[in-house]
Each structure stands twice: as C-alpha cells, then as structure tokens.
From TrEMBL:
Organism classification: Bacteria, Pseudomonadati, Pseudomonadota, Betaproteobacteria, Burkholderiales
PANTHER family reported in the protein's UniProt record: ALPHA-D-RIBOSE 1-METHYLPHOSPHONATE 5-TRIPHOSPHATE DIPHOSPHATASE (PTHR43135)
Pfam families recorded: Amidohydro_3
Signal sequence region: none
Assigned EC number: 3.6.1.63
A molecular-function term among this protein's GO annotations: hydrolase activity
All copies of domain Amidohydrolase, residue ranges: 205-387
Keyword set includes S-adenosyl-L-methionine: no
Native organism: Sphaerotilus uruguayifluvii
Enzyme class: hydrolase
Protein name, entry field: Alpha-D-ribose 1-methylphosphonate 5-triphosphate diphosphatase
Keywords, comma-separated and alphabetical: Hydrolase
Length: 389
C-alpha cells in the first residue's frame, strides 16, 4: 500500500450531504476531502460512482452458514473463515462483528459446541495481512443453556470481543411467540417431532426452579462480563415493554430485532438503539411473523440496519431506504441518513469512533458503489486505505 492515494471524480456520501469531489488517503486515514476534481496524474478516477464509508455489521450469522452449510455437515474452520471474510468484504462491509452463538438449550445444534478455534484462525490470517474485513466478535449468549458459560470462557479475554447479547430462543418466547410459526420452524428445520415441540413448549412456558436459576445465573454472569470489559450489551427479540424495561435495568443499550412495534417504540423512548434486519426490509416481512422493518421505518423506530444472515442484503436495504419508491434511483437527499444506519450508527453503538463516516482523520474504510437500474453494485472496497475488494 502506498503512503498516499487520491480518489477523484466521486459522489462522496458525507454525514449530511452528497457532494462531487475527491479524497486524499494517507497512511490508512482520510487526509483531505476536496470539492471537484484533483489535478494529480496519479489520482484514481471513480467516474462519478458513489463513495461510501465502509459498512459496519453488528450481527451476522454468516460464518455459521459457512462452517455448517448443511445440517450435520461441518467444514474446516480455516475454509469457513476465509469464505465468510471474502463474502463480507464483497458486500461492502469493512468492519464485522461475527455473531457466535454460545449455548444451545437442547445440546443438539451448532451453537451448543465449542467454536473458539476460529479465534486462532482469525489471528493467524490477520497477522499474515490477508483478512479483508476487520473482524470483531459478538457473542450471542443463550440464557437457558446449561453450557453457555463454559462455551463463553475462551472468548472472555480475547481482544476481538466487542458485543454481548442476551437471548432466549426456546419455543413460545420472544421471537417464537407466534406458536404456529414456531411449530413449523422447530419441526421442519430443527427436525423435532410434534410431541417434542409440545413438551419443550410446556417447559418453556412453565420452567422449573432449576431452569429459572440457570437463566438468572447466566444473565448475571454475562452482564458482569460486559461491565468488567466495558463491552456494549444488547437484548435480543424484545417483544413487550417489560422485556425492554428488564434490558434497560441491566445496562443494555441496543435492542436487536424487536419483534413488535410496541417494543421498538418503548426501546427508543427508553434510550436504546433499535436494530432491524435488512432481509426483513427487502422481503417486506419477517420470516418469523414479527414486525416488519418497513413498519419500524415508517414509525421512525429504526436506528441500525443489520444483514443478519445475508451479507449482500445490507447495502441493498440501504438503497431501499434512500429511494422514494422501488423503481427510483437513490435520492441524494435521503442517502446520507440511509448509509448512516449501516455505518456511523452501528460504529458509534459499540464505541468505534474512528470509522463509519467520510471525514478527515477517520479510517479510510470506503466502498465504491455504482448504481445500476436503481440498485447498488459494489465495485471496490478499501480498508485502512488498502484495497480489499
């Protein structure tokens, strides 16, 4: 990487406006922004394409999809991490919080196993200078699981850990409050029998003392870990105002994927940042029957977009927010705010003040985007001034 690089002839998506101009990158940072072209022969002409800040992803299960592409089929961690990293960068994501599940209440799934081998793989690839994205970790802490703390231990003091979320994915709870959809999911995707679903639903609805004690002890331990490390803490699938109040009392600052408009509104009123799924926005509805992200947007209740399980959905959803209608190109007046939901807002939510927008002094994490038929196409990605995609 050269100490200095000039990108010229771009539509720069700044914090509050889109301007045609040029940018000087120096030693991995944005050194200067100039309106109009820069008269340097070495400048890279972007030909009027958009230049966005690198996207920041707080919650993606994409690594899990590469590690276990089919039920019961697990690939080597080295292969999974590299494939995940390449896909993330190709989507314009320069900072990613890999969401790793710790704990499975039923001891059958991928999240019930030790996945910490990926730590050594990420560090080795990073040391070799071949990671495309900046990989951080988001540990998804399954409160009812009796092995959650055991699986958490290898990550506790690792330098990549930046976010914890508190979850309960048992039937009848939060995301799976819609029992018809829950039954279909657990039977058809998880392979449960109808009898097993009914039994687990009863256990979840009327937990015994041991289960309640485990949930409370796990919650206390994870909250203490977040406070000790100064980590951001998120709640997951808040469904009722009571869920939000409980989260706020614990020190939670992010409400991930609230499942109802009521919960999302209560979260924002309580000062929590709300996260919505980009696949939900693109599809127009939730796969689990929860509130649509379009409803959150219309009600002014969305702060952050997440690609969730489809990396390429993040930029597409940003463009959807920036369009007046489905057939229109991005509106330059709407684009800065739309981009911020996938860059500045998530970065600030987890304490990253050195990225997420195009401004002098910040990291040169950038995405070149060309609009084709009103849709965004990634043509180039830089992280810390280095071309990675």
């Amino acid at each position: 990487m050269h100490d200095e690089m000039v990108l010229s002839g771009a539509r720069l998506v700044l914090a509050g406006e889109v301007v045609r101009g040029s940018m000087v990158l120096r030693q991995g940072r944005i050194a200067a922004i100039d309106a109009g072209p820069v008269g340097r022969s070495a400048a890279i002409d972007l030909g009027g394409d958009y230049l966005l800040p690198g996207l920041v992803e707080l919650h993606t299960d994409n690594h899990e999809r590469h590690a276990m592409p089919r039920p019961g089929v697990q690939l080597p961690v080295w292969s999974a991490v590299q494939a995940h990293d390449a896909e993330i960068a190709a989507a314009g994501i320069t900072t990613v919080f890999d969401a790793i599940g710790v704990g499975d209440p039923y001891q059958r799934g991928f999240r019930g196993r030790d996945q910490s081998e990926m730590l050594a793989v990420l560090d080795a690839l990073d040391e070799a200078g071949v990671l495309r994205a900046d990989h951080r970790l988001h540990l998804r802490c399954e409160l009812p699981a009796d092995n959650a703390l055991e699986l958490f231990a290898p990550y506790d003091d690792h330098h990549r850990l930046g976010l914890l979320s508190l979850m309960d994915h048992t039937p009848g709870q939060r995301q799976w409050s819609d029992l018809r959809r829950a039954r279909a999911y657990f039977i058809h995707k998880k392979g449960w029998s109808a009898q097993q679903f009914d039994q687990e639903l009863e256990r979840s609805a009327h937990p015994d003392a041991q289960r309640l004690a485990r949930i409370e002890s796990n919650r206390a331990a994870f909250v203490a870990a977040a406070r000790r490390r100064g980590l951001a803490l998120a709640s997951h699938d808040d469904t009722t105002p009571a869920h939000v109040d409980e989260a706020r009392a614990l020190g939670v600052t992010i409400s991930e994927f609230p499942t109802t408009l009521q919960a999302a509104g209560h979260a924002r009123a309580a000062g929590l940042l709300t996260v919505g799924g980009a696949p939900n926005l693109l599809r127009g509805h939730s796969h689990a029957g929860n509130v649509s992200v379009a409803e959150l947007v219309a009600a002014g209740q969305l702060d952050i977009l997440s690609s969730d399980y489809v990396p390429g959905s993040l930029l597409a959803a940003v463009w959807m927010l920036a369009r007046e209608d489905a057939a229109a190109p991005a509106d330059p007046r709407r684009l800065p705010h739309a981009v911020a939901t996938a860059s500045r807002a998530p970065a600030r939510a987890v304490g990253l003040d050195d990225r997420g927008e195009i401004a002098p002094g910040l990291r040169a994490d950038l995405v070149r985007v060309r609009e084709v038929a009103g849709r965004p196409v990634v043509l180039g990605v830089w992280r810390g001034g280095r071309r990675v995609g």
